[in-house]
Amino acid sequence: MKSGAMLTLGALLSGALMAGLNAARADVVRYPIPNSTFPISQAVQVPGNATTYYISGQVPPVISKEADPSSPQAYGDTKTQTVGVLNKIKAILEGFGLGMADVVKMQVFLVHDARAPMDFKAFMEGYTQFFGGSQPNLPARSVLGVASLANPGFLVEIEVIAVKDAK
Q1: 61 or 25: whose pLDDT is higher?
Q2: At 2, is the pLDDT very low, low, confident or very high (cuts 50, 70, 90)?
Q3: Under a CB-based contact definition with an 8 Å cutoff, are residues 28 and 47 in contact?
Q4: Which ranges in 41-128 belong to alpha helices (H)?
Q5: Residue 37 class from Cβ within 10 Å (0-12 exposed, 13-18 middle, 19+ buried)?
Q6: What is the pTM of this model?
Q7: Could you give the C-alpha distances from 54 to 65, 86, 97, 107, 164, in angstroms and in order?
Q8: Which of 50, 95, 104, 143 is in the most buried spot, having the most CB atoms within 10 Å?
Q9: 28 neighbors 46 (Cβ within 8 angstroms)
């Protein structure tokens, strides 16, 4: 092969490699809910080359050591528990070099029974401290009302999936 042909072949291969790398580095795409300001994404698209992190369900930290550890008083109301859980998730993510903006999917379990009806409004007050506003990367999200969690004092449990782009 002549040197001109080698250069052309090299340029073509280099261009194809660069195009492939750029395609592989595609960003996570978040699709908002049409005509809505509700702070979740309708869907999230993750490129195939992203690293995925599955964060196990987190429960609230104790805020009152004097309270019965199986009572909500030990962990706070729904808003307090939501903020506590999301702070735990934030710390876990930071340990992986990630942040709340890297969360693509969230599943929320809120206790809903006669003793403690699901307080979605209080959950949203805590949630919007982390998502929406100054942190606009919204996850796809589900919120489920459950009869109970592992500890009778828990009103909130949250698990997330986060991704890190290859770039």
Answers
A1: 61
A2: low
A3: yes
A4: 78-95, 120-127
A5: exposed
A6: 0.81
A7: 30, 15, 14, 11, 12
A8: 104
A9: yes
**Dist CA 143 CA 110 (whole Å):** 7
Average pLDDT, the chain: 86
Phi, psi for 3 (deg, rounded to 5): -60, -35
Q: Cα 50–140–162 angle (5° rounding)?
A: 35
Q: Write down the residue that tokens 């580095």 correspond to.
A: 25
Residue with token string 């550890």:
69
CA distances from 30 to 41, 43, 106, 117, 118 (A): 6, 6, 14, 32, 28
CA–CA distance, 39 with 107 (Å, rounded to integer): 14
Residues 6 or more apart whose Cβ sits within 8 Å of residue 105: 44, 139, 140, 141, 160, 161
Phi then psi dihedrals of residue 135, to 5 deg: -120, 90
* Burial class of residue 126 in the structure, from the number of CB atoms within 10 Å of its CB (0-12 exposed, 13-18 middle, 19+ buried): buried
